Amino acid sequence: MLSPIHIPVMVEETLAALNVQPGGRYIDCTLGTGGHFAAILERSSPGGQLLGIDADPEAIRVASTRFETHRDSLLLVNENFVNLESVCYRYDFLPVHGILFDLGLSSLQLTSDGRGFSFQHEAALDMRFNPGQSLTAADIVNTYPELELASLIKNYGEESFSRQIARLIVAERPIKTTLQLAQTVERAIGGKRGRIHPATRTFQALRIAVNRELENLGSALQQAVKLLGFQGRLVVISYHSLEDRIVKRFMQQESRDCICPPETPTCVCGHTASLKLINRKVITPSLAEIQANPRSRSARLRTAERVIPQDEDDEVVERLCSDTGAKSGGWRKATLVKKLREVFLAA
Questions:
Q1: CATH assignment of 11-108+213-346?
Q2: What dotted CATH number matches 113-211?
Q3: Entry pTM
């Protein structure tokens, strides 16, 4: 089976955000069909080391074939990025120069006939990134109480007609296929149509719930910071407001030395900044890219850079600044960083 054609979003912007250098070490946490991965591989040559992770085993199979001639410089792992830290320790792949999360669905999943991610063709209500997990969209649609189902569709799909949709879904049970569900949602909403298909938000909500996408994202971002070396970059491309809100708040919080409530007279949290915001305004695709690739229209890119908190001990400083053996683009030596810190603190 041929892999579907996939156009990666904001490739040059992503490479610039990651500050990809020859000989660098990078992680793509959402490999997909390898669009961004291929660009990073090319830009980091010679000597680049790449780790590609994806929860979908089909994505790993496709990438293994696509990058077969580069096996010596890359590692492909079928794993959910919620286990990012354990994967890196398992393969001794740390610290790293850059970590990329390109969230949402890949073309591989959207064009698959039997995965149930799309309402464009008939398929079982599955929506699992990894077929090995137990919970499916059919389980949610056919077993959740009406109020719980309505809440899920509202919170994860930001759907204003969630109650009407949940009520009709319960009345129409059992619902077994994507087209059956899409038609049920259309009837629940009636003639209330916007510029997107009436079932879009409901399908999004179910996919997020099945794969625990928002919970996993929050955990993975925290792990990513620990894996970045000094001046390593964290780059996230999101496609809907729920994801982007999590990323924005995380990066803003981790770029501040104090996260106490405004009414607290003195700092009691003990928090110190571990990131520095690179682009304070979110980066979006150009008009030309949106016209060439309409799927990119909702993409939002955010970037932050790893910094060393002032109270980190020498061992942590040494690890964050350690030499990965890269021919160029490596981190500054720990002793130099400590001297610079002393100068800035004395100023």
A1: 3.40.50.150
A2: 1.10.150.170
A3: 0.86
CB 34 within 8 A of CB 255: no
Distance CA 80, CA 132 (A): 12
Q: What is the separation of C-alpha 264 from the centre of its chain, rounded to a whole number of angstroms?
A: 33
What string of pLDDT tens digits covers the 347 residues of the chain?
A: 344 456 899 999 999 999 999 999 999 999 998 999 999 999 999 999 999 999 999 999 999 999 999 988 999 999 999 999 999 999 999 999 999 999 988 767 666 667 889 888 899 999 999 999 999 999 999 999 999 999 999 999 999 999 999 999 999 999 999 999 999 999 999 866 677 889 999 999 999 999 999 999 999 999 999 999 999 999 999 999 999 999 999 999 999 988 888 888 788 788 889 999 998 899 999 999 999 998 899 999 999 999 976 555 555 555 555 544 444 333 444 444 455 455 445 54
- Does the CA dihedral 317-318-319-325 come out positive or negative? positive
Q: Do residues 47 and 22 lie in contact, with contact meaning Cβ atoms separated by under 8 Å? A: yes
Q: Is the peptide bond before 285 cis (omega within 30 degrees of 0)?
A: no
CB 101 within 8 A of CB 216: no
Where do the structural domains in the chain lie, given as residue ranges?
A: 11-108+213-346, 113-211
